[in-house]
Amino acid sequence: MILVIPVALRRGALVLAAVAAAAFAAVAIQARQSPAGSLAGFTAERAEAQAVCEADFLARPSGDAFREHLRIITANPHPTGSAAQVEVGHYIGRVMRAAGLTVEEHPYDVYLPQLTDDVEAHIVTPVAMQLSNREPQLDDDRFSGHPGLLNGWNAFSGSGDVTGEVVYANYGRREDYRALDSLGIDLEGKIVIARYGGNFRGYKVLFAEERGAAGVIMFNDSPIEEVDPYPEGPMLNGDIIQRGSVLTLPWTGDPLTPFEPALPVDGDVQVERLDPDSVGLHTIPVLPLGYNAAAEIISRMTGEASPPGWQGGLKMPYPLTGGPDLTVRVRVNQPKALTRAINVVGTLEGSEFPDEWFVLGAHYDPWGFGAVDPNGGTAMLLTLAEALGEMVAQGCRPRRSIMIAHWDAEEYGIIGSTEWVEEFRDQLTTGGIAYINADAAVSGPNFGASSSPSLKQPILDAIQAVEYPGEGRSIYDWWSDRSGGEAPTMGNLGGGSDHVAFYTHAGVPSAGLSSGAPSGIYHSNYDNFAWFERFGDSEWVYGPMLARADGLLALRFANADLLPYDVARYATDVRTHVNTLLEVAEARRIDLDLSALVESSRDLDGAAAALEAARTARLEAGGIDTAFAARVNAALIGLEKAWLDDRGLQDRPWSRSLYVSPDPFSGYASWMLPGLRYEIETDDPADVPEWESRYIAAIGGLADRMREVTAMIEGG
Question: Is 386 a catalytic residue?
Fold first, then answer.
């Protein structure tokens, strides 16, 4: 079915385009052309209609709307489990309904820490001193004294009251604990103090607990040179505390329902839940401090000097041990219980292919106010929803469904989005086009993106059509200029946010676009509207910019005749990742031959080139009917699923993607070809041939799927 655009709308859109720099839409049409001159994935006829809708859309995202949404959402602290979070969820729903989206709430009963600030840290000897564990109220920050703010705490800490000598563990990485082992430093009954950075905070606790530590203190280390500390500037000061979850399990999501959604206990469908005592949650007390408080401990440590590279930014030595005269007390009271978490999902239903979903999402639960993390992304998505709704009201309904999702309980362990993916896994398998994450996506001028291979070129194409504020050029040109004039390079997605379940469990191509700024207020009580309006998107232009970029990407996938995945990128990226594996093996002095894997990627080259040629020729011919498009696009959606293996990764069966996973020893970093990477990192090359054969089979399966799509297109 051809997308029909009323003449009146066409004229109106052209006027809007002129005043809103929508000439960039023309750049996009030229950015990645088929021989017929069509936008990638579009016949020439549909590309013309698409250009009109894009021009209309690009004129709509509003800075005033973005600011107002952020102001309302961050008026009060609203962590998961609070009454304020429920109200924020209701506000999100109201905004999307008013924009014309169909809104559904998806509740889950998940096992979470209960909100409490019943945590404290003390120096016991040689002096008695309670250490500050809450940011002080500031005259320059009207939000900092809010009565709903909590002390610094870590979700999924154990409860307990322990006192012991101190051991400094640097960043608390696997290699740091191994260094302590090699030096003969016993952690049994000790309080470990480790600085933030280098890995996910949960692993700092896991490795300490494995060695018998009694408790853990984590702290934001001082920068070497204190630059622009808050509130004079945007950066870290000595009182700022990084809250955060320390959950480390072999699966993502609710601790008690791996692989299954944690449906409400009062619902029609009941799910089995694990016994919390059998899950392996942390049992030792854990809490975070700022570097002023940490300095009170470190300055009193009298043990041997730390290894090279362990010295932090405080102007004092960082000894490995505190000595017997220094004892520290850590007390945490953290009850846990089933807690209602609610995802709020708005849908613009597709006019022709409603069961094909392009999903954009961000979590909306913070540690306090969350102006940057996450609600810069939340406000941007609401601005996007309004712009799309206005566009649809003028006659440009997308052919495929666009979903805008707001996830709950991300900060406790990527829980809300994971439960939703587990609930709708079957629908995502057949109809999940892509997931675009917007967690903390807006806080300043620095644009960047990370992506799965098949979305990289579509993202680059889309940002050529969106103006970078105030510069009269595209985001792409701005980014390219900062890349030395070269084509911008996108990173690979790691862990730590809501793309994880989509990408590594369900096999949905995923990406994250963001526009940020340097800050030091991560997960602190100072992440609020006062910081944002002074140091973030203070002119309220980058939120609308990102709404345009995300929205344009969504519209192109939603309206394309044949989905414009970048299929050629799979082979080139695989070879890049194999080279990385060889470099890691060489650094670890492991002799590795992956030539068969490299050779298999060459077959992928040929299959991808044939598919690209067939798709281009078919689009050039025009006249693609809905039945043919549905068959071909279902097969294109299935390409990413070639990487899924139900056996999962080593000790992590929930992680089903052989292509990508978070680093299982650091949590945040992206591991590409992770099954092989694990064998190398654990110095166990004997199992490499078996894993290489699994990868060759997956690549061969992907090539076969590409050939099937090619045959389908040519046969059609």
Answer: no
